[in-house]
């Protein structure tokens, strides 16, 4: 592979041509939220100008075009993470909402007093607070996988922590430490203990090929705004049978 043509890549991002404090803009905060390339900005603009209508609500031409575009996006995103079917892919507002949907709908239906959810000390608040709320509302117990001195998961006591657990909710890649976690062995250990596995893949999806089947995960949350896409949209991937069995987390219009 040849050297990266940085100027060519930067040319894709209109914002990088502006100056800030009379200096050229250098943007290093993509882990929080990435800038958008012209292809994304143009595509969103084109949709608003040419095809905008309510999705799954009308049978006139542009409503059908909007619905097709929406479903095509669902197919592409599902394929991108190697889902078995687009039916496993639920669009959400962001990754935070995706985790909350699992906590409210799956957790609300399946977890109660004394049931155990295992988290790690490197989770983002999005994968902590929904479980703390469930602990306060339904009396679940939260157990924590600690960290080693070199900021990896300390798996010394993993079997004890997973003993009797209903869910392991773990980040694939830490937003603070950059640590990449061994998701498949963690999922194998969780499944052997009878627990389901939720993966927070917010930081993994922008950096690595992400394969929900290779991970043998049960749920996965991720977000468009950290990987060059628009803000305001994320995704919950889940095994179809688990999604089908979940009660709705919100009521009313889709
Ligand atoms: C690891 C991780 N999980 C979850 C989130 C929350 O993502 P969102 O903004 O899509 O809700 C973030 C955002 O910083 C993150 O880095």
Summarize the helices and strands and which ones pair or pack:
Elements: H1 6-10, E1 19-20, E2 23-24, H2 38-51, H3 61-80, E3 89-92, H4 95-110, E4 116-120, H5 129-138, E5 141-145, H6 158-162, E6 165-171, H7 183-192, E7 196-200, H8 212-215, E8 219-223, E9 234-238, H9 240-245
Helix pairs in contact: 4-5
The chain binds pyridoxal-5'-phosphate.
Pyridoxal-5'-phosphate binds at residues 32, 94-96, 124, 126-127, 171, 175, 200, 202-203, 223, 234.
The percent range for strand residues is: 15-25%
Report the strand count.
9
Helix/strand/pairing class, anyone?
A: alpha/beta
The name of the CATH architecture of one domain is 3-Layer(aba) Sandwich
Briefly summarize what is shown.
With 254 residues, the chain is α/β, with parallel strands linked by helices. It has helices spanning 6-10, 38-51, 61-80, 95-110, 129-138, 158-162, 183-192, 212-215, 240-245; strands spanning 19-20, 23-24, 89-92, 116-120, 141-145, 165-171, 196-200, 219-223, 234-238. The chain has a domain at 84-245: Type I PLP-dependent aspartate aminotransferase-like (Major domain) (Aspartate Aminotransferase, domain 2, 3-Layer(aba) Sandwich).
């Amino acid at each position: 592979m040849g050297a990266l043509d940085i100027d060519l890549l930067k040319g894709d991002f209109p914002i990088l041509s502006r100056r800030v404090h009379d200096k050229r803009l250098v943007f290093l905060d993509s882990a929080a939220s990435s800038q958008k390339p012209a292809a994304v900005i143009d595509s969103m603009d084109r949709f608003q100008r040419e095809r905008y209508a309510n999705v799954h609500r009308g049978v006139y031409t542009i409503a059908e075009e909007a619905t097709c575009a929406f479903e095509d996006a669902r197919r592409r995103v599902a394929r991108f993470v190697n889902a078995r079917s687009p039916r496993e892919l639920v669009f959400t507002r962001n990754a935070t909402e995706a985790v909350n949907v699992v906590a409210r709908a799956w957790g609300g239906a399946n977890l109660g007093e004394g049931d155990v959810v295992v988290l790690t000390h490197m989770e983002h608040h999005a994968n902590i607070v929904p479980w703390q709320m469930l602990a306060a509302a339904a009396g679940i117990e939260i157990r924590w996988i600690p960290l080693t001195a070199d900021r990896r998961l300390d798996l010394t006591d993993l079997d004890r922590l997973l003993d009797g657990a209903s869910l392991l909710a773990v980040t694939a890649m830490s937003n603070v430490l950059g640590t990449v976690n061994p998701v498949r062995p963690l999922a194998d250990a969780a499944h052997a203990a009878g627990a389901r596995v939720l993966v927070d893949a917010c930081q993994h999806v922008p950096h690595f090929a992400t394969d929900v089947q290779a991970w043998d995960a049960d749920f996965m949350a991720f977000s468009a705004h950290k990987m060059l896409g628009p803000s305001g949209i994320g995704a919950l991937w889940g095994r179809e049978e688990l999604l089908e069995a979940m009660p709705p987390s919100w009521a009313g219009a889709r």
